[in-house]
Write a structure and sequence with these properties.
mainly alpha; 0% strand
Length: 203
Amino acid sequence: MDKAKMGTFIKEQRMALGMTQQQLAEQLHITNKAISRWETGNAYPDIALLDDLAAALSVSVEELCRGERIALPSADTNTLLSDVITEVRQQKKDRAAKWLRILCLSIFSVILLAFLFFTGAFLFIQNEANLDEALFTLALGAFAIGLMLFRDGIPILLLAIALPPLLCRRPRQPAKTIVCILLSVLSVLWLIFGGHFLWFQLF
């Protein structure tokens, strides 16, 4: 089963019927972005939509899964559908695992930074005679760290979001590519000029 082949087949059948992505999406009660992802080979249709999608395209479910017209149904249709179900479930698990790793890494980073900061703060004020002055110094330090994260952390995060889709070799949607390029350029300019080119730095 080939994801790109299935996507091409969906696009060909949709165009042969004179339907736009929006019209097909309305029939299936989904967004046209989902249709676009199928047709570019970036995702499989949800298993629950296979019957409705095949009916909308006037093809059989087996033809849809194989990505081609067939003269006679084969005997291993159940095996084919099982493969599709397994692939879709694995795709969902991989996507969920990816976001879970990102979330866990983000939480761990925040906890680590907080631990390091408060440990340093405790060691800093432990032997200070003037507690108010020490706390004020810590507050200034926390503010400086916040400014540093705003200046460098946000553009680095934007680069981390925008670069992977641009570097992958899979087919990309033009709108998504433009957004990623703009985010990358903005991030690089932000890192070079420290945000001074942005409107909120003019005042």
